[in-house]
Write a structure and sequence with these properties.
Blueprint: H1 2-7, E1 11-15, H2 23-33, E2 38-43, H3 48-56, E3 59-64, H4 69-97, H5 106-109, H6 113-123, H7 130-145, H8 154-159, H9 165-189, H10 194-202, H11 206-217, H12 228-239
Parallel strand pairs: 1-2, 2-3
Helix pairs in contact: 4-10, 6-7, 7-9, 9-10, 9-11
C-alpha cells in the first residue's frame, strides 16, 4: 500500500485470494489513495457473486486462472489505449473550458470524424443498419456543436431530428446491440482478432460482450446488454483521439 503512494501506477494486477488482504479489500483501500487506479483481477475463483462484487468495486477485467497469455496481453493493451483516449479527451475538454471551440479549427470544418465514424460502424458490421444512419446524425450534430450527452439527454437530441425520438433511440440501440453480437462472434472465432480486442473494450462494456459470448455458446440464457448513451459517448471519445 505504501508503494502505491510513491509509484502511482496506471494499471494494477491483483489476485482475489491473498494471505494478508483479499483483492477486493486491497482495491477499496487503493482507491482511497488514488481513485484513478485501474485494476485487473486474476483468480481461480469462478463464483458469479464474487466476480460481480469484483466488478462493482472497480475491476476493469476479471481474468480466470489458468491464465491465457494472449488474453492478458490484449486486456492490458486495451486498458492502455482507453487511458490514452481518456487523457486525450481531457485535454480537448480543457480547450472547451478556455472557450476555444472546435468550430474555429480548420480540421473540424473538414468533418474529420465522419470517415472515422463510418469505419467504426463498418467494422462492427452495422453500416447498413437504419440505426447507424441515426448514430451518424447524432454524433455529427454533437461534434459540430460541441454538445455532449452530459449536458443534453439523448431524447432531447433525437427530438431535433424527428417527432418520434423514442423510435430513433430504439433504432440506434438495435444497431449498437447488433454490433456487440457481431463482436462476440468475432471473439469466439479468434480471441486475438484486432477488431474484437479494440472495440470490445473501447466501445462496449467487455463484461457484457463476454455475456453475449456465453449466450452464443449456450452457457447462459442471458444476452449481453448495451447502454446506448454509454455507446455513443464511447464513440465520441474514440473518434476524437
Amino acid at each position: 500500500m505504501e508503494d502505491l503512494k510513491l509509484v502511482k501506477p496506471d494499471i494494477i494486477l491483483v489476485d482475489l485470494l491473498m494471505p494478508e488482504m483479499d483483492g477486493i479489500t486491497f482495491i477499496k483501500k487503493s482507491k482511497e489513495i488514488d481513485p484513478d487506479f485501474h485494476f485487473v483481477m486474476i483468480s481461480q475463483v469462478s463464483s458469479k457473486d464474487m466476480i460481480s462484487e469484483a466488478y462493482e468495486c472497480g475491476v476493469e477485467f476479471y481474468i480466470q486462472k489458468p491464465i491465457n497469455s494472449i488474453e492478458v496481453e490484449s486486456v492490458l493493451k486495451n486498458i492502455s489505449q482507453s487511458l490514452i483516449l481518456k487523457r486525450t479527451v481531457e485535454k480537448v475538454q480543457s480547450l472547451f473550458n478556455t472557450n476555444l471551440s472546435f468550430n474555429s479549427s480548420p480540421v473540424q470544418d473538414e468533418k474529420y470524424w465522419l470517415p472515422k465514424l463510418k469505419t467504426i460502424l463498418q467494422k462492427l458490421g452495422i453500416i447498413g443498419e437504419i440505426g447507424s444512419k441515426d448514430i451518424i446524425t447524432i454524433i455529427n450534430y454533437m461534434m459540430e456543436n460541441g454538445e455532449t450527452l452530459e449536458n443534453s439527454t439523448l431524447n432531447e437530441l433525437c427530438s431535433k431530428f424527428t417527432d418520434n425520438p423514442k423510435s430513433m433511440e430504439q433504432r440506434m440501440r438495435r444497431a449498437a446491440n447488433t454490433g456487440m453480437i457481431n463482436l462476440a462472434n468475432l471473439g469466439l472465432e479468434d480471441y486475438s482478432n484486432d477488431v474484437f480486442t479494440e472495440y470490445s473494450t473501447n466501445l462496449y462494456n467487455f463484461e457484457q460482450v463476454r455475456k453475449e459470448m456465453d449466450y452464443i455458446r449456450g452457457k447462459s440464457c442471458k444476452h449481453g446488454n448495451v447502454k446506448i448513451k454509454n455507446f455513443l459517448n464511447s464513440i465520441m471519445l474514440y473518434i476524437q483521439d
